[in-house]
Amino acid sequence: MKVFVTGHNGYIGPHLLELLKREGHFVAACDLDLFEACKIASVVEPDITLKKDLRSLTVKELEGYDCVMHLAAISNDPMGNLNPEITYSINRDGSIRLAELAKQAGVGRFLFSSSCSIYGKGETPDLDETASLNPLTAYAISKIETEKALTAMADDGFAPVFLRNSTAYGYSPMFRIDLVVNNLLACAFSKGEIRIMSDGKPWRPLIHCRDIAHAFVALLNAPREKVFNKAINIGANEENYQVKDIADKVQQLMPAARIVFTGEVGNDPRDYRVNFNLLYSLLPDFRLEYSLDTGMEHLYQELKRIHFSAADFDGDRFVRLKLLQKNLSKIL
Ligand SMILES: NC(=O)c1ccc[n+]([C@@H]2O[C@H](COP(=O)([O-])OP(=O)(O)OC[C@H]3O[C@@H](n4cnc5c(N)ncnc54)[C@H](O)[C@@H]3O)[C@@H](O)[C@H]2O)c1
Predict the structure, then answer these.
(1) pLDDT, average across residues 5-24
(2) Within the chain, how many helices (H) and strands (E) appear?
(3) What is the structure's pLDDT at 79?
């Protein structure tokens, strides 16, 4: 098939490119390369590369593709808070425009990278796709408003699908440490401290970044009628963890590391445990490649391989917010 990917040079994108090329698909990809400094290994290149802002793509550039996989975004809450207008401009308005162009160009399927963070402060312990949404940030609001607008565009020729991804972790050639598991593990590895910023109690559904890529590929291959216009939580029921559980697992890997509660964020209001039954009922053969244990062990080995240091932990290279601040002029 012919697939158009946005955000292929982000954290999840390189895994997706590798899986798509391994399956023999033709891939065009668009990315502004805001975070190229974070590269720690080589990546699989697309057949066509468009190094440009997704907001300036044209219908012509999208013609002839079977599917758009839309990952490019301002991809977390702190970056969203830095400048909410940019988050709305790229994540919401840019995504809606891209979907309109894709529809005009005759692209049949549009896989949108949404997020479980739209559940915000979960009201029930086991949130499925019908749960009420309690967005707490510009980032989460931008994802909800995009889902709403794209749902209204669905018709016989255009099938949007919303991947409500769990919080990602694990090794990627375009590494980042501003995600909870990577942060705890990288800090313990480089500084000997497991720094918990909240009280450790909030729940988070977790997923290896490569498993998000697997989900995109599975949803590309799924029968249209099964996934048409559906929002689907991406993760697994047994992969919901409290932050303190993650810290315990880091300590099992590195017994000499000390657990420290910094209290920086007090009671973290983002607290949600998610139900993933729909994913497995729609795609009965879908399985995660990694559990938190195997994904953390793998990342630990990779941190050793790249000699990840305290300077790496404190520096700008692996923190999206810091790199974005340097590159802000590219997206204003
Ligand atoms: N990482 C997670 O935990 C997670 C969880 C749930 C959902 N998601 C969603 O998955 C997607 C990918 O996440 P990620 O972790 O790979 O993010 P990332 O920040 O690592 O990568 C995003 C990529 O998008 C590109 N980009 C940003 N704005 C652009 C623009 N205007 N034009 C062209 N390119 C642009 C950046 O250069 C970057 O390469 C995002 O939509 C994110 O919201 C991520």
Answers:
(1) 98
(2) 14, 12
(3) 83
Ligand 1: does its nearest atom lie under 6 Å from the Cβ of 167?
Answer: yes
Which of 183, 313, 197 lies closest to 260 in space, CA to CA?
197
Q: How far is the CA of 297 from the centre of ligand 1 (A)?
A: 24
In terms of residue numbers, what domain contains 22?
A: 2-169+206-236
Closest atom of ligand 1 to CA, residue 31: 34
Question: Is residue 268 predicted with pLDDT exceeding 80?
Answer: no
Are residues 16 and 113 both part of a single domain?
yes
CATH assignment at residue 315: 3.90.25.10
Mutate to test the pocket of ligand 1, among 11, 82, 96, 116 (most ligand atoms within 8 A of CB): 11
> Does ligand 1 have an atom closer than 6 angstroms to the CB of 12?
yes
Do the domain assignments include residue 30?
yes
Among 18, 43, 61, 71, residue to substitute to test ligand 1 (most atoms within 8 Å of Cβ): 71
Query: Helix or strand or coil: residue 112?
Result: strand
Question: Would the pLDDT of 223 be above 80?
Answer: yes
* pTM > 0.90: yes
| Ligand 1 mean position, distance from CA 279 (Å) | 22
Domains held by the chain: number: 2
Q: What is the CA radius of gyration of the chain?
A: 19
